[in-house]
Amino acid sequence: MNREKKVYVIGHKNPDTDSICSAIAYADLKTRTTHGIKYVPKRAGQINKETEFVLKRFGVNAPKFVLDVGVQVRDLEIHKTPYAHAAMTIKEAWDLMNDNNAVTLPITDSEYRLEGIITISDIAKYFMVPSDECPLASAKTRYKNIAETLNGEVLVGNELGLFTKGRVLVGAGTPDVLQSYMDSDDLVIVGDREEAQIAALEANASCIVISMGSKVSDKVIQLAKRNSSVIITTPHDTYSVTCLINQSIPVRFLMKRDNLITFNTNDYVDDIKDTMGKLRIRDFPVLDSQGRCKGTISRRNLINAKKKQLILVDHNERTQAVDNVCEAEILEIIDHHRLGSLETIQPIYFRNQPVGCTATIMFQMYQEKELDIPKHIAGLLCAAIISDTLMFRSPTCTKYDQDAALQLAAMAELDIESFADEMFMAGSDLRDKSAEEIFYQDFKKFQSGTTSFGVAQINSMNAAMLAHIGEQVKPIMANAVGQNAVSMVFFMLTNIMSESTQLLCFGEGSARFVEQAFHAKVNNGTCFLPGIVSRKKQFIPAMINAIQET
Q: What is the domain-level CATH number for residue 12?
């Protein structure tokens, strides 16, 4: 199956403006410099108000959300099966399976919605171990299907009529003998003997099948018409007819309808492999989100499962990455943070620079590739730099960040100060957010030795709003420890204008580590940190040093 190669460009969980905008920009850069691969920006969490404002300002849709990058059924080599409907004959189904190297054939309606399945073993078992004296009648087989299976034609009668009762007999004896063992409505296979043909029709046969391509007399034709009987002619000999005729029954008669085990293209392989291992089923139908059958998979497909391919931007910590990142193939990492805990199977392109924003690195890469930066991309990158550097106030900000932002602002026709005011005000508008949503909108986990801790941060130009948010968030911090499997959690309420942070802390040792790191007093889980605005460059390094010195 030919599938377009696709690579996801994705930032960290609880994405900020840099994470989202850098993913969009790098997907654009890679698409323009690589042939045959589709680079798609994705996000690993809900976008915040600030990022929502930025995307809307530059007319860009938010990347689609990805919860988990584990291998899904859609990543397997799904065996495409041809369209097969319930009215087709067993012979047609058998031929389709042979032509397409399939042992299982999904049976669908005209919109590809699954109605049942039939397998080669189902067909073989039915004909090798017959359980029905006359499957042709039980299956209500159309005369047209019988004729087509026998490579013949309906010479007389309604080809769309159904053979619904009676037996299938071979008219091998004399007319008297034939009539003695015939019942009304039987289907009789006869040769070129006119007397046998007439005898069968006079005994009220519903249909006679004339073998060897024999000519049919007017007398026989007229008798069939008077009796409302069907005449089918076939070039096959009598023996071949008897072997083939039951293959004309419709698939619906043999197909399995109930308790079908199916998988969805969105299912994760980890969730289905136990089911596949326990059941003695060769192939399983695969349905898409609209319930349409896409083909089949088997256990052997799991061996060569194709991992999702990722490029990570703005992070390299496993705890901050999308779920099941270790099941994916990481191709590149572009970041500006400390080296984290992610590992790769093979060497990859890893660009990590001590700048204030990943978007600054993106700007440099566009320049290195001598690519024009589209106006909307320039706007996104400029917004990301302003956001991550708190409009150049953060100690993480470098000359490279400021130079990049100024050039990008010119490309996007932005006045940096007025745009920054609008953006930060939009990001500070948290009136419709719950305390938990506010806490987790920019929450990251960190590890130092055996100690793990989480840090959330809110930036605002409104001191009163920050104070209000602090009161809202305090009650949920205890739960945040257990929910995230960390020993401590911190919440940075950062005032952009005063360049300071009111820190909330919770968990065993949290106050002690803060006091040791910043030489400040913690009262009732709260501490004021003047000059501290950067989680990455100021808070995290100081905390890790304090933890390691203990």
A: 3.90.1640.10
Distance CA 510, CA 525 (A): 9
* Continuous segment of H or E residues that includes residue 233: strand 230-233
- CATH, residue 485: 3.10.310.20
Residues in the chain: 550
Query: Which amino acid, one-letter code, is at 54?
Result: V
Count of structural domains, the chain: 4
Residue 132's Cα: distance from chain center in Å? 44
Do 318 and 423 belong to one domain? yes
Query: Dihedrals φ, ψ of 486, to 5°?
Result: -125, 160
Which pair of structure tokens corresponds to residue 178?
């034939």
Nearest to 17 by CA among 50, 45, 61: 50
Could you tell me how far CA 460 lies from the centroid of its own chain?
Answer: 38
- Give pLDDT tens digits for 380-435: 999 999 999 999 999 899 999 999 999 999 999 999 999 998 999 888 777 778 88
For the chain, list residues with pLDDT below 50: 1-2
Whether the predicted model's global pTM rises above the 0.85 cut: no
Q: Give the H or E element holding residue 215.
A: none
Alpha-carbon gap, residue 516 to 111, rounded angstroms: 67
pLDDT, residue 132, reads 65
Q: Please check whether residue 134 lies inside any domain of the structure.
A: no
Q: Which domain holds residue 115?
A: 75-129+253-302
- Tell me, yes or no, whether 117 and 63 share the same domain: no
Phi-psi region of 207 (alpha: psi -120 to 50; beta: other; left: phi over 0): beta
